[in-house]
Amino acid sequence: MGSCNGCEVEIGQAFGPVYDADRYGARLVASPRHADVLLVTGVVTHNMADALARTVEATPEPRVVIAIGDCAIDGGLLAGGFGVRGTVGDVTHVDLAVPGCPPEPDAIVAALRQVTGR
Ligand code: SF4
Predict the structure, then answer these.
(1) What domain count does the chain have?
(2) Which ligand 1 atom is at minimum distance from the Cα of 77?
(3) C or N: which end of the chain has fewer Cβ atoms within 10 Å?
């Protein structure tokens, strides 16, 4: 939502050929309407707060929200910034959190495996 893109790079690695989250049943989809799980990165900025709420609403239930990275969990480096509304948990429910700045792909895959059960 207000990420520096570091967390996205690690999410990309989690789905790459080395860490390969797909083999545990996790698959990237193009729309929240096709998703079971949302990976949310970064602080929630004022501009993106409504978009996050709408994205969560567009995801069918039962849905799981995973906050990826310190910014998403507690504001991290960007806590208190003028453009910051808050953490992901300030805007929506959070089921799982993966700490780190950024978290390592292994940790992201481990969180996904908690959801897929594989
Ligand atoms: S947790 Fe670190 S890597 Fe992730 S968005 Fe925040 S500053 Fe960037």
Answers:
(1) 1
(2) 7
(3) C
H/E run at residue 68: strand 64-68
**pLDDT tens digits along 19-34:** 999 999 999 999 999 9
Task: Output the CA 81–ligand 1 centroid distance in Å.
Answer: 14
12 lines ligand 1 (CB under 6 A): no
Q: Is 71 in the pocket of ligand 1 (CB under 6 A)?
A: yes
Q: Which domain holds residue 95?
A: 6-116
